[in-house]
Write a structure and sequence with these properties.
2 domains, single chain, 164 residues, 16% strand, binds flavin-adenine dinucleotide, alpha+beta, 7 helices
C-alpha cells in the first residue's frame, strides 16, 4: 500500500513519519517550495524568523514524545508574556499582572480571571471543539469586545487571528 499526503506541514510530516514506521510507502505533496507549513520560518538579516510564534508546553505529550523519538533536543525556557500598549509593555503572566492591567475595567479583569480559572476547573473541554473561541468568550463573559477595544483602532484585525 502507498499513501499520498497532501501538505508538508507538521500534520502531514507527522502522518508520513507514523505511516512509514509501519512500512507504508508515503509520498508528501507540498505546494510550497519548503516544508513545515505554519511552523516554518524565513530568513531575515541572517536570522531564522518563525512564521508564527510557537510555544511547546510540557503538557504537549504527543509532540514531546515524537521529538524524543526523533532524538531532537529541547532547550526549555521560561517565557514571559507582555502586553504592549501606548508605548509601554505591561507584564501579563500572573493573576497580579492581570489585576494591575489598567487598560481593562476592573469588572473585565475579574471576568477574564474567572474565564481562565474556569478552563482549569473544567473536567472536559471537548465541547470547545465545536464553537469558535470568540463565541465562547462572548457566551461566557461578554468580554471580547471590551478587551478588543483596549487594543485601539482596528482591534479586530489584531485580536482575531488569535481568536479564530
Ligand atoms: C499565530 C500562531 C501561533 C501558533 N502558536 C502555536 C503554539 O504555540 N503551539 C502549537 O502547538 N501550535 C501553534 N500554532 C498552530 C500551529 O502552527 C498549527 O496547528 C500547525 O502548524 C498546523 O500544521 P498543519 O500541518 O496542520 O497545517 P499547516 O502548517 O497549515 O500545513 C499545511 C501545508 O499544506 C500545504 N498545502 C495546502 N494546500 C495544499 C495543496 N492543495 N497541495 C499541496 N500542499 C498544500 C501548505 O502549503 C502547508 O505547507 C500557532 C498558529 C498560529 C497561526
Amino acid at each position: 500500500m502507498s499513501v499520498a499526503i497532501l501538505g508538508g506541514g507538521i500534520s502531514g510530516l507527522a502522518c508520513g513519519y507514523k505511516l512509514s514506521k509501519r512500512g507504508i510507502k508515503i509520498r508528501i505533496f507540498e505546494s510550497e517550495p519548503y516544508l513545515g507549513g505554519l511552523a516554518s520560518w524565513y530568513k531575515y538579516c541572517g536570522l531564522n524568523i518563525p512564521k508564527t510564534y510557537h510555544h511547546v508546553l510540557r503538557s504537549d505529550a504527543a509532540l514531546i514524545d515524537m521529538i524524543e523519538e526523533l532524538k531532537l533536543s529541547i532547550r526549555w525556557k521560561k517565557v514571559k508574556t507582555g502586553f504592549y500598549s501606548k508605548g509601554k509593555i505591561f507584564p501579563f503572566n500572573t493573576a497580579l499582572d492581570l489585576m494591575r492591567f489598567k487598560h481593562l475595567p476592573l469588572t473585565d479583569r475579574l471576568k477574564f480571571g474567572l474565564l481562565l480559572l474556569s478552563t482549569r476547573w473544567s473536567s472536559s473541554l471537548q465541547y470547545l471543539e465545536k464553537i469558535s473561541i470568540e463565541s465562547w468568550i462572548r457566551i461566557l463573559v461578554g468580554l471580547c469586545l471590551s478587551f478588543g477595544r483596549s487594543l485601539g483602532q482596528n482591534y479586530r484585525l489584531r485580536l482575531f487571528p488569535f481568536l479564530s
